[in-house]
Amino acid sequence: MNAASVYVRIKNEKIYIEEDWTEEGIATELLREGVPKEDIVLAFHDPETRKLTEFAVA
């Protein structure tokens, strides 16, 4: 059996992805479901690195 770990929290009306070991990535699934990039924070990156992504910084 394969297992994937995902840790997501909601803070200030944004979805913070703290950990994601899924194959496609939970951010990909959220985008597919219509969640805007500006509502998703890739929290597993430090704030400086987040600025380089298309997603929200915080």
- Strands ordered across the widest β-sheet: 1-2-3
Using only C-alpha atoms, the radius of gyration works out to 11 Å
- Number of separate helices: 2
Sheet/helix structural class: alpha+beta
Output mean pLDDT.
94
The coarse overall form would be globular
Percent range for helical residues?
10-25%
Number of DSSP strand runs: 3
* SS strand fraction: 25-35%
- Spans where pLDDT lies below 50 across 5 or more residues: none
N-to-C series of helices and strands: EEHEH
Distance between the termini: 35 Å
Query: In this structure, how is the largest beta sheet organized?
Result: 3 strands, mixed
Could you explain how this protein is built, in words?
- There is one protein chain.
- This protein has 58 residues and is α+β, with helices and mostly antiparallel strands.
- It contains 2 helices and 3 strands, in the order E-E-H-E-H.
- It has a 3-stranded mixed beta sheet, covered by helices on one side.
- The chain is globular, with a radius of gyration of 11 Å.
- The model has no long low-confidence stretch (mean pLDDT 94).
Please name the defining characteristics of this protein.
three-stranded mixed sheet; 2 helices; 3 strands; globular
Question: Layout of helices and strands, plus pairs?
Answer:
Layout: E1 6-11, E2 14-20, H1 26-32, E3 40-41, H2 47-50
Task: Give a quick rundown of the structure.
The protein is α+β, with helices and mostly antiparallel strands and 58 residues long. It is built from two helices and three strands; from the N terminus they run ββαβα. A hairpin with a 2-residue loop joins strand 1 and strand 2.
